[in-house]
Q: What sequence folds into this?
């Protein structure tokens, strides 16, 4: 009953905004199943789609900040991004030059691949016409009417009435919603809103395009260039393709100049005269190659126009008309955001109309406009500043050029200071402490050299990745099967995303002669997404398009069936489940041929990286770290590499040569396989999916459809290893294979009923094969000699495990992630960690396959009992008892009692994560979960505590937001509504003028986020988690004071409470915070350490207005002495602040106790707090005066490394295990990570008991928490330093703030005072536009607040 159902939506203009909106709305309506679908019609003035094919200019399609056009393209119909990538301009770096593109002053160097080619996944430089054509070509042809110019419209007089459109040819149309998307010179806007006129930005732009050149100018290959000159003229020059150059000269001219030039360009003779005389004079301020390019320019390509813009007007949609893109907020090219804004407008309007939860169109449009208007105002402001700087002259131009030259020539090596190895800068080892003594000049220089390496005169790139152990290395993969191809893709993808430069060289050596050699060989398998068989998860993570291709190739039927002698009557059926929390339109498994998966993966590996017909037979390991591995091939050739990945399958030649003792083990079963020719139809019953049929004998049948006309079958039976080898050899002879098929094979098949015999008779002799079922437990795989094994080369598995290919995919993905994202110092450390995680998983799968072989090939009484049991299960499952995965009922958690002491963030997150994991894994009976919390109810501490940043990144201490995303749906959305206003982080010195900060970006809903973070009160997170825990789990008012550990495995844990009562559980999770009573009782030696700092917190009452500088985000102010200040908004009317300073532990404890007395707190507020705040500027003193004494609190900064005791039925998580000071910024994030990881290890870790799961959890989590604690100590030392050290640190922050503003799209220059520029990251939410009712603002109101725009 959507208000869009059956409506007529008309779009005036088929440009980028209009065509993108048509696609986005159609896609959203399909996904939301709106019926009947709205009719979407585009009216475009051009006579055809290719009218503007070679007109216009190029632009940067970006993925960040307010210019997220590339994000929209990625979310639109499949294939658009791929098409645009093929059409992007050569070179994607940005360069600011002085008079010529040959010598860059400042370069924004893109990431590079192994061949040195630029790759920038966050932007595409492309012609506007290419984007328009690509989008418009995907709109259904019947939805586009070309040659129709809409010149006016009659708005709807009241809701429900139609809008009347009038066209230039006199015709009219009616619609329910009119979307105006016809560009900056919109006729409809001029007719309906004549007062909303475009404004001249002060610059005239002249464009030209060369003909096809024989040779491109040197330097232009690097990407587009902006060249400044001595005068107020600026040059832009970039490549259109490999033979064409686009150039533009912009000058400060009267508004009439562009019209004069356009008149000249209408006369061929006048154009030629202009090119011969005036144009060379205009270009006189620039050097070659501009003059050569002008001579090669076609006169017909010349064009001129004024740079114009206009602030967005009210756009409520109350009259059935809505404006998007340049029709609403035209922008000059200097904003760099016009087309990106049009794409974002199109996507967000479609989402608000369909998915915004509104009751009518007008409400959806109002919400869209409220979100989009501030973004466009910011872009227009930025374009004015760029125009002013780029077209300046005199002293200001001299200062700008001098500053850029200084940056480009002298300080390039530290242009990415944010990514430096600070441990090497501070000369600290992982476990060492940092003192607060000022650093000497020599020590400072040594630290800089260590952090910057040898990159002192290299281009500005991410230096930390230049020093990565993978950078520039050669990675060779022996084997182009599923594991090898997947690893090549996963490693390349991870290196690109992490900006490793130079990229490692990745090469695959494959024995087959082409990718299609094994096209019709092999068998099918289930690509699954859960537990230890998560191959589908790996495919989802890999390059786009793989999953879609495999879904199109999956076998006919996707359910599994266990049968008795025939496929017609299943005993038990395993219906394919929908993928929960992953792909709402897909299943959690895909049945597919192995050869299809291999081809899909290998075809996406760059062809120059795959060497076919190369069989690696041996290798010489590296003698010591840093030496190469020598590979030898069957043709006598050899290759050297830095890391050799062995992925050549179960019968690995390399493993046999290097580890001859690691031989495969026969699993006791021989397998015969065959594939039918094309059948008229698949036999009845097989259309439901693959079947496994049992018989009275020790023979088992597998049969499944490959497609609608082909069937794959396999007979397995017990045989000696010699017999299996004999049959394997027999099928290599066609005549012997035919004889075996006619005699022995049909006799073997007689144990089963039809349709097996019919399928055997229809089987092609060439498809028959036999092989022994083999497996082998994983061997030691440390990578110490430069060689690592993955997939079947490491742990071959029989098909009965159902996990071989899935394991190979998981190995490939996880090894790549450990190498790139594991935070290791060497490849060997990464490989060791990978092997430690992967080996238990593969061992478990091999054990499972042995059990399946034993049951499926049993005889006599065991077979009878097995069949009876399956029959009962089948009957029960038909009664909806959901016993499809009954083996999970045997989990060690089934029916157990889990107690959680403490319902803070860690405890409540663990309860939710465990309940969710058990439910998804169908553990029956479910474990009983009890949460014991000292508070009387969930809202007892509603307004107590401080805020923290929930972060996205997977580095140490930063993965809390990832956990929230994976927990029950709705938590993230609730927290996004509660996040603090302003989300950027600013580091300042004594005042609130930022020295350095982290850029604020937007999330998918338009809310401000910083590096994928949410700044939020701890109490809000705790409340959101507790609200989703079933009430029967909670036990409020219960304080756990002690416990009696289990005497032996299987015995219960006795819990003792403060009220004298007791309880028992099988597993006790201690999550009662930093001052844990349970830890104090059970481990009295594990005491918290004082970090040397006392922190005092306060919170204002409700303010009439929050100081505007605080709306930008959180501020950390460094004091002149060893004092620091943190200040942030809690909501729109409240501010929290914290002062921290060095003092002895005894004094800090005394202060904490003193502030608990109201009278003493008031006295301290009146006398002592102003003295502490004396070194900081306003608004701190005003905020202190607004702070009630009752909100004051002080606490010593405490931490403690994680202890090593986990056992006896008790496990510790969060601050109860590793308390951290707030300076780590990671305490709550760590608690969330601990909670999620412990739950996953208990349920999905493949362990045989709780102790093994807890040990694995502790082994993974302890290093992470230790790193965060060491980091907090370093932050404390730096923030509370004084003297020369403080001076050096502040100076370094100033340099970092300046440099990062040049290399980032988020920061931009703000005029602070005449002649002075300082960098600032400002959130679009804090602009004047948001302060205006309805989200709109007049130009006059903006200029009053920001006179620099005038």
A:
């Amino acid at each position: 009953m959507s208000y869009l159902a059956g409506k007529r939506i008309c779009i005036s203009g088929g440009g980028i905004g209009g065509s993108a909106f048509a696609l986005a709305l159609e896609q959203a309506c399909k996904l939301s199943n709106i019926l009947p679908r709205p009719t979407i019609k585009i009216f475009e003035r051009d006579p055809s789609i290719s009218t503007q094919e070679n007109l216009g200019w190029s632009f940067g399609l970006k993925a960040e900040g307010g210019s997220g056009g590339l994000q929209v393209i990625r979310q639109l119909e499949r294939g658009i991004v791929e098409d645009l990538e093929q059409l992007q301009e050569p070179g994607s770096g940005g360069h600011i030059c002085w008079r010529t593109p040959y010598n860059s002053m400042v370069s924004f160097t893109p990431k590079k691949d192994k061949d040195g080619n630029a790759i920038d996944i966050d932007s595409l430089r492309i012609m506007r016409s290419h984007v328009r054509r690509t989008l418009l070509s995907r709109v259904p042809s019947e939805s586009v009417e070309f040659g129709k110019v809409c010149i006016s419209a009659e708005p709807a007089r009241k809701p429900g009435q139609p809008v009347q459109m009038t066209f230039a040819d006199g015709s009219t149309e009616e619609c329910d919603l009119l979307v105006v998307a016809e560009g900056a010179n919109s006729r409809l806007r001029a007719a309906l809103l004549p007062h909303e006129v475009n404004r001249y930005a002060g610059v005239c732009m002249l464009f030209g395009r060369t003909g096809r050149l024989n040779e491109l100018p040197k330097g232009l290959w690097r990407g587009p260039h902006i060249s400044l000159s001595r005068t107020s003229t600026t040059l832009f020059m970039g490549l259109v393709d490999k033979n064409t150059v686009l150039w533009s000269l912009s000058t400060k001219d009267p508004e009439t100049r562009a019209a004069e030039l356009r008149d000249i360009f209408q006369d061929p003779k006048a154009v030629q005269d202009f090119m011969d005389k005036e144009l060379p004079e205009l270009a006189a301020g620039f050097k070659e190659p501009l003059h050569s390019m002008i001579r090669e320019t076609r006169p017909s390509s010349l064009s001129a126009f004024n740079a114009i813009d206009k602030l967005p007007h009210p756009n409520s949609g109350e009259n059935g008309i809505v404006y998007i893109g340049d029709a609403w907020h035209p922008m000059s090219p200097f904003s760099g955001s016009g087309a990106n804004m049009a794409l974002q407008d199109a996507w967000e309007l479609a989402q608000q109309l369909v998915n915004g939860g509104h009751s009518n169109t007008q409400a959806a449009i109002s919400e869209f406009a409220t979100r989009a208007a501030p973004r466009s105002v910011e872009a227009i402001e930025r374009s004015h500043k760029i125009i002013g700087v780029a077209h300046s002259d005199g002293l200001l131009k001299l200062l700008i050029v001098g500053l850029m030259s200084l940056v480009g020539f002298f300080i390039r090596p530290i242009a990415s200071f944010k990514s430096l190895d600070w441990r090497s800068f501070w000369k600290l080892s992982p476990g060492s402490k940092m003192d607060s003594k000022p650093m000497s000049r020599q020590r400072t220089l040594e630290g800089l050299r260590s952090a910057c390496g040898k990159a002192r005169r290299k281009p500005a790139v991410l230096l930390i990745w230049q020093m990565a152990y993978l950078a520039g290395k050669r990675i060779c993969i022996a084997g182009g099967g599923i594991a090898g191809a997947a690893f090549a893709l996963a490693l390349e993808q991870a290196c690109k995303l992490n900006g490793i430069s130079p990229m490692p060289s990745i090469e695959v050596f494959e024995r087959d002669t082409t990718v299609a050699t094994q096209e019709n060989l092999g068998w099918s398998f289930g690509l699954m997404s859960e537990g230890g068989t998560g191959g589908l998860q790996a495919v989802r993570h890999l390059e786009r398009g793989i999953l879609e291709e495999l879904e199109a190739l999956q076998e006919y039927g996707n359910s599994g069936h266990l049968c008795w002698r025939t496929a017609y009557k299943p005993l038990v059926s395993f219906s394919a489940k929908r993928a929960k929390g992953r792909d709402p339109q897909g299943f959690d498994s895909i049945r597919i041929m192995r050869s299809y998966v291999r081809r899909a993966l290998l075809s996406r590996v760059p062809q120059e990286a795959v060497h076919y017909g190369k069989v690696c037979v041996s290798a010489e390991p590296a003698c010591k770290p840093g030496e190469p591995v020598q590979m030898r091939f069957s043709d006598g050739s050899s290759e050297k590499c830095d890391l050799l990945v062995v992925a050549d399958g179960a019968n690995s030649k390399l493993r046999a040569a290097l580890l001859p003792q690691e031989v495969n083990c026969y699993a006791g079963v021989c397998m015969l396989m065959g594939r039918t020719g094309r059948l008229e139809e698949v036999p009845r019953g097989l259309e439901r999916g693959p079947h496994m049929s049992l018989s009275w004998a020790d023979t088992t049948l597998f049969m499944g459809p490959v497609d609608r006309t082909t069937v794959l079958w396999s007979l397995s039976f017990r045989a000696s290893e010699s017999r299996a080898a004999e049959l394997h050899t027999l099928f290599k002879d066609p005549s012997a294979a035919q004889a075996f098929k006619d005699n022995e094979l049909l006799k073997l098949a007689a144990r089963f009923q039809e349709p097996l015999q019919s399928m055997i008779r229809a089987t092609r002799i060439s498809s028959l094969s036999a092989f022994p079922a083999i497996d082998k437990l994983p061997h030691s795989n440390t990578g110490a000699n430069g060689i690592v094994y993955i997939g079947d080369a490491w742990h071959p598995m029989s098909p009965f495990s159902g996990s071989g290919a899935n394991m190979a995919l998981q190995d490939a993905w996880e090894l790549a992630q450990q190498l790139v994202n594991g935070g290791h110092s060497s490849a060997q450390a990464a490989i060791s960690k990978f092997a430690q995680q992967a080996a238990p998983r593969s061992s478990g799968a091999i054990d499972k396959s042995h059990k399946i072989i034993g049951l499926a090939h049993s005889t006599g009484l065991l077979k009878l009992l097995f069949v009876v049991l399956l029959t009962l299960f089948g009957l029960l499952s038909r009664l909806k008892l959901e016993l499809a995965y009954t083996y999970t009922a045997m989990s060690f958690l089934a029916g157990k009692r889990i107690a959680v002491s403490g319902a803070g963030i860690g405890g409540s997150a663990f309860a939710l994560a465990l309940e969710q994991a058990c439910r998804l894994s169908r553990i029956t009976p479910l474990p009983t979960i009890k949460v014991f919390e000292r508070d009387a109810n969930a809202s007892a501490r509603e307004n107590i505590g401080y805020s923290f940043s929930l972060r996205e990144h997977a580095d140490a201490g930063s993965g809390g937001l990832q956990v929230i995303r994976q927990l029950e749906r709705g938590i993230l959305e609730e927290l996004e509504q509660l996040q603090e206003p302003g989300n950027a982080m600013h580091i300042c010195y004594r005042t609130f003028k930022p020295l350095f900060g982290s850029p604020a970006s937007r999330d998918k809903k338009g809310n401000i986020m910083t590096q994928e973070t949410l700044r939020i009160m701890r109490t809000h997170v705790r409340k959101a988690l507790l609200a989703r825990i079933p009430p029967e789990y909670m036990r409020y008012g219960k304080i756990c004071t002690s416990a009696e550990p289990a005497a032996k495995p299987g015995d219960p844990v006795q819990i003792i409470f403060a009220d004298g009562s007791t309880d028992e559980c099988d597993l006790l999770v201690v999550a009662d915070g930093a001052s844990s009573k349970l830890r104090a009782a059970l481990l009295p030696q594990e005491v918290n350490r004082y970090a040397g700092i006392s922190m005092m917190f306060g919170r204002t009452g409700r303010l009439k207005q929050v100081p505007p500088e605080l709306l930008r985000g959180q501020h950390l102010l460094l004091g002149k002495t060893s004092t620091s200040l943190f200040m942030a908004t809690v909501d729109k009317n409240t501010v929290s602040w914290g002062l921290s300073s060095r003092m002895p532990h005894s004094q800090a404890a005394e202060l904490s106790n003193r502030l608990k007395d109201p009278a003493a707190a008031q006295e301290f507020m009146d006398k002592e707090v102003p003295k502490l705040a004396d070194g900081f500027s306003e608004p701190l003193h005003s905020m202190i005066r607004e702070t009630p004494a009752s909100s004051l609190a002080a606490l010593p900064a405490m931490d403690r490394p994680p202890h090593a005791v986990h056992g006896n039925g008790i496990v510790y998580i969060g601050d109860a295990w590793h308390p951290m000071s707030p300076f780590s910024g990671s305490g709550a994030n760590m608690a969330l990570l601990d909670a999620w990881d412990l739950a996953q290890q208990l349920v999905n870790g493949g362990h045989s008991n709780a102790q093994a799961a807890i040990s694995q959890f502790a082994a993974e989590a302890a290093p992470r928490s230790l790193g965060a604690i060491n980091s907090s100590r370093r932050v404390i030392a730096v923030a509370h330093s004084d003297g020369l050290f403080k001076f050096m640190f502040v100076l370094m922050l100033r340099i970092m703030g300046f440099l990062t503003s040049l290399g980032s799209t988020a920061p931009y220059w703000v005029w602070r005072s005449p002649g002075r520029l300082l960098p600032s990251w400002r959130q679009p939410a804090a602009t004047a536009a948001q302060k205006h009712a309805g989200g709109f603002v007049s130009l006059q109101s903006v200029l009053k607040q920001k006179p620099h725009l005038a």
About this structure: The chain has a mean pLDDT of 79. Residues 361-390 form the longest helix (30 residues).
